[in-house]
Amino acid sequence: MSHDLDPPVAGPGLRELVDRLRVDPDDGFRLADRATEDDFGMTKDEALARLAASRSRIDVLQQRLHAEGERSVLFVIQAMDAAGKDGTIRNVLSGLNPAGIRVESFKAPAGPEAQHDYLWRVHQVCPPRGGITAFNRSHYEDVLVVRVKGFVPEQVWRRRYGHLRQFEQLLTDEGTTVVKVFLHVSADEQARRFQERLDDPEKRWKFRRGDLDDRALWTEFQAAYEDAIRETSTAECPWYVVPADGNSRRNMAVAEILRHTLEQLDPRIPEPEEGLEGIRIV
Ligand code: ADP
After folding, report:
1. CATH 3.40.50.300 given to domain 14-265
2. Which keywords does the record carry (predicted)?
């Protein structure tokens, strides 16, 4: 079965697009080699049309996944501040049946979260059978901000790569497909977006002074992302690096990654009871 859109739309085919963005294991991944901007050979309007088409298809596949009720999808989204995590989630998942979709956000652990191992809070909110859960930040914070800010010694965060691979393998073995997306924004574009937030009274609330502390550690964060992605992108639980300097192409590409994941799962609606086709409701 072809996984490409019918009728064809502008830009690369689905498989070509996701192949371009995926990080294959053992390919000597370097974040600096990946673009923060890519128009994928599409105008903005073409990207928006493709996003809409992709969302419609995700809607159909999500309903099938729900009807099948056996497997689930965990869609992890990570990024530097202002790369567009919230906007991507809103644009890609809007219009889907809320009954089958959840979004979980992760802040600095507090209360009982801080009293347990770092995966405790994560495992509880992984998707149920038939569901899709998007993580806005995730268990990867425990090898990113935790590493960069020195919250734990190196030997502690370094051994977590192994935990993360094994945790995701467990989820995979038990029926959850794990897909991870890094929204790759440039330092210049982040500066522009921070300034826009500060200048717009409607958006100013999004800005925290601490955002500038993280920005000052840009190089350290990029190194932490590079290592995390290289260490945990596996054939079954891949990372995708999505250019995030342009919103419409970013949203389109993320939607296509989710669609591709669902196309590959190919969820099957259950067989109806026999003999239903003859029934006439009076
Ligand atoms: P967001 O930036 O995601 O929109 P916030 O501004 O509330 O939301 O930021 C959440 C903060 O929580 C981030 O600074 C992130 O680094 C932090 N955080 C998330 N998970 C952890 C963790 N496991 N350990 C420490 N800090 C974390």
Report:
1. yes
2. Kinase, Transferase
